[in-house]
């Protein structure tokens, strides 16, 4: 049964715990001095420019010859995918601020218009380097490996004949030309679709102004076409755009084709939903998904060489100024290069790696017996995701399991987790699934899974008003003896076996009553009503997470000021929250040694004398996407506090999402977090980039006698050793 949100009595928003998070002024004396004043605006990097710096680090992987050639191509494709989302969401939001007259500035004091100006400059440079990498590095390197990309001018006579036949048989039947004239208004071009704009002349009336038409290219057509194998061993490819431009005259019989250029429009793709005014959240999101393709244009990508008249027609009809236009010398949408990963050339890829299933949970039939005696921590993708799936599947079939409660934010297309929940419901168990419909770009998938679960009798709840349910939790209730025992899984990543092979994440299994009691309270709060639940061990947003983290940070500051050892280690995806950064600055000024491993956005400025000289920030970008969040506070009343969970240090995670950080209390697991995870990541001198006070990310410097060390290679080798140990 789906939990509906009805307009007459909307579910109340979560209300954070009473009080506020500690601020700088709450540290009344550090080394006998009053707390420092709030940092100036130059103490923060711009969020959008910091994200672009992250995408620059991804591009550096494509430029790095240490990586296998086809892996470099994949990194180049990821750069394009990242930029698409950046424009669809972040740039779209800034454009809306300008259009609506919003004058509020960012943390670093920049208004929306100035941010857009700087974004354009940075993106233009980034894209130029991206295409330079493709044209000057990757294309020649691929050719040396007999993977050849050809333009229309480079085709041999035999290849030209094959291409024209391919066009007539595979492309021409699905093309629909759209004329642009008084009788044919400018068409509605869907988001991120490929289009060809053509110029035509009528030979019978050469004095008439040139004609213009658009050829929308159906998504069903492959963007990268392998030319039919001929003599030799080379694999020859041509881009779909080159084929269409070469043969487009066949679509306009009697007219002379004078020019053809590919272009692509990116549109605002964020969802705008006032949940308190929505009677049925699922139907409203479905409606919004249909409307996304009609969102306002925020970027035009077009090949170089288009004449000013046609360029003006496109910009005028898309209501775009030139600051949102990017001209390319090369194929549009390099994301399509991802299909090259399917080429059977293992010599041009990373060595194959299979996650190992060597944990205490490798025997699924003993999962409950094992967890009654010990906590278990898995480190994906080095540890297989299999025990997580086994945990849910075994619970679905165990007759002593009475209930399963699960959050689902993103999952795979053929999710075994969803199948297990359906099976559990059909086996008569009480199954509750919290499906977050608003998981960006996965909304349609989540609607599909929600309906499948509902049809199987699962109690489906669609998140909460004003908050995304982003925490990763599964709680199993099992009848044992005369009572019920709770078994829990808490993670830093999604319940997605596919991404679990690509993302580094932590999975934690426990039966500790303090944690499972808090989890039960949280699930009841999510599915029912609760204005201010009190959690004793879990840090839960939007309740106690933000305030508790500030207390931990400032607690280290107080201990450093008192001459006690103080240390903060934190690993996350993004650091944006101003209060958190201000308190980290206060801790640094008090003498706390702080090491931050922030993969993506970091608005904190490290290494500034008198402000952040004790803070070091580094980013790791490599084969696997660093996604785990883990935190260490050394001197909290004696024993260090060690946490992991789903939350980055961003305002959205603290106040607009349901997030969970959980404590690691088992001594063995605590030693692994400090002695392996943090220690080894801080030693990386291959994939690590150190953030400097000027905003530059530079390779970590090390002595000539210090060997190269990649933490991802280290954990891969460690996993192989564990696998051999259990064979």
Ordered list of secondary-structure elements with their pairings:
Blueprint lengths: L1 E2 L43 H17 L5 H31 L12 H33 L2 E3 L7 H15 L6 E3 L13 E8 L9 E6 L7 E3 L8 E5 H8 L8 E12 L13 H12 L4 E7 L4 H11 L6 E4 L38 H5 L4 E5 L5 H12 L3 E8 L7 H11 L3 E6 L7 H13 L3 E3 L6 E2 L2 E9 L2 E9 L11 E8 L2 H15 L11 E3 L3 H17 L5 E6 L5 H13 L2 E6 L16 E6 L4 E2 L3 E4 L7 E5 L5 H5 L1 E7 L3 H17 L4 E4 L5 E3 L11 H16 L1
Parallel strand pairs: 1-14, 2-7, 9-10, 12-13, 13-14, 15-26, 18-23, 20-21, 21-22
Antiparallel strand pairs: 3-5, 4-5, 4-8, 6-7, 8-9, 11-18, 12-16, 16-17, 17-18, 19-26, 20-24, 22-27, 24-25, 25-26, 27-28
Helix pairs in contact: 1-2, 1-3, 2-3, 4-5, 9-10, 13-14
What's the gist of this structure?
The protein is of the alpha/beta class and 727 residues long. Helices cover 35% and strands 20% of the residues.
């Amino acid at each position: 049964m789906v939990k509906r949100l009805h307009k007459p009595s909307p579910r109340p928003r979560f209300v954070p715990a009473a009080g506020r998070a500690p601020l700088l002024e709450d540290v009344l004396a550090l080394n006998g001095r009053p707390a420092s004043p709030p940092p100036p605006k130059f103490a923060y990097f711009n969020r959008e420019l910091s994200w672009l710096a992250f995408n620059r680090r991804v591009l550096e992987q494509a430029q790095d010859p240490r990586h296998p050639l086809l892996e470099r191509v994949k990194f180049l494709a990821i750069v394009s995918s990242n930029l698409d989302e950046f424009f669809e969401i972040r740039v779209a939001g800034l454009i809306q601020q300008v259009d609506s007259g919003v004058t509020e500035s960012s943390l670093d004091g920049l208004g929306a218009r100035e941010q857009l100006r700087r974004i354009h400059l940075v993106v233009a440079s980034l894209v130029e380097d991206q295409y330079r990498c493709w044209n000057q590095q990757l294309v020649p390197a691929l050719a040396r490996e007999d993977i050849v990309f050809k333009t229309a001018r480079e085709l041999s006579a035999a290849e030209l004949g094959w291409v024209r036949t391919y066009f007539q048989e595979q492309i021409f039947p699905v093309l629909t030309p759209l004329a642009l004239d008084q009788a044919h208004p400018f068409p509605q071009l869907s988001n991120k679709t490929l289009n060809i704009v053509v110029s035509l002349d009528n030979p019978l009336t050469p004095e008439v102004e040139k004609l213009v038409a658009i050829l929308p290219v159906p998504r069903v057509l492959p963007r990268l076409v392998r030319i039919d194998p001929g003599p030799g061993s080379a694999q020859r490819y041509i881009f779909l755009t080159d084929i269409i431009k070469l043969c487009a005259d066949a679509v306009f019989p009697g007219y002379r084709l004078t020019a053809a250029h590919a272009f692509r429009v990116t549109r605002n793709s964020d969802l705008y939903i006032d949940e308190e005014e929505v009677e049925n959240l699922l139907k409203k999101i479905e409606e919004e998904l249909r409307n996304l393709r009609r969102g306002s244009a925020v970027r035009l990508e077009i090949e170089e060489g288009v004449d000013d008249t046609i360029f003006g027609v496109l910009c005028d009809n898309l209501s775009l100024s030139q600051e949102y236009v990017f001209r390319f010398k090369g194929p549009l949408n390099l994301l399509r290069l991802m299909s090259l990963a399917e080429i059977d050339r293992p010599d041009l890829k990373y060595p194959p790696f299979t996650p190992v299933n060597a944990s205490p949970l490798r025997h699924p039939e003993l999962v409950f017996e094992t967890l009654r005696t010990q906590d278990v921590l898995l480190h994906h993708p080095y540890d297989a995701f299999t025990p997580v799936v086994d945990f849910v599947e075994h619970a679905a079939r165990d007759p002593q399991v009475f209930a399963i409660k699960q959050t689902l934010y993103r999952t795979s297309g053929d999710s075994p987790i969803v199948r297990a929940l359906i099976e559990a419901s059909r086996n008569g168990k009480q199954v509750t699934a919290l499906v977050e419909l608003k998981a960006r770009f996965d909304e349609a998938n989540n609607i599909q899974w929600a309906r499948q679960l509902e049809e199987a009798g699962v109690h489906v709840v669609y998140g909460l008003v004003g908050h995304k349910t982003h925490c990763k939790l599964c709680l199993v209730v099992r009848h044992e003896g005369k009572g019920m025992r709770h078994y829990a899984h808490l993670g830093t990543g999604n319940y997605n076996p596919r991404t679990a092979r690509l993302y580094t994440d932590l999975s934690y299994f426990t039966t500790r009553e303090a944690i499972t009691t808090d989890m039960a309270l949280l699930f009841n709060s999510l599915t029912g009503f609760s204005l201010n639940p009190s959690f004793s061990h879990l840090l839960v947003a939007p309740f106690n997470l933000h305030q508790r983290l500030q207390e931990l940070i400032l607690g280290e500051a107080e201990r450093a000021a008192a001459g006690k050892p103080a240390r903060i280690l934190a690993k996350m995806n993004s650091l944006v929250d101003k209060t958190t950064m201000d308190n980290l600055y206060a801790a640094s000024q008090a003498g706390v040694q702080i090491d931050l491993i922030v993969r993506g956005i970091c608005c904190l400025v490290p290494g500034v004398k008198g402000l952040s000289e004790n803070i070091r920030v580094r980013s790791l970008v490599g084969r696997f996407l660093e996604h785990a969040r883990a935190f260490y506070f050394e001197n909290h009343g004696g024993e260090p506090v060690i946490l992991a969970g789903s939350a980055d240090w961003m305002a959205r995670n603290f106040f607009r999402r349901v997030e969970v950080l959980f404590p690691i209390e088992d001594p063995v697991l605590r030693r692994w977090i400090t002695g392996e995870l943090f220690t080894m990541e801080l030693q990386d001198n291959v994939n690590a980039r150190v953030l400097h006070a000027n905003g530059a990310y530079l390779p970590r410097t090390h002595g000539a006698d210090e060997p190269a060390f990649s933490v991802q290679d280290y954990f891969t080798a460690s996993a192989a050793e564990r696998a051999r140990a259990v064979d």
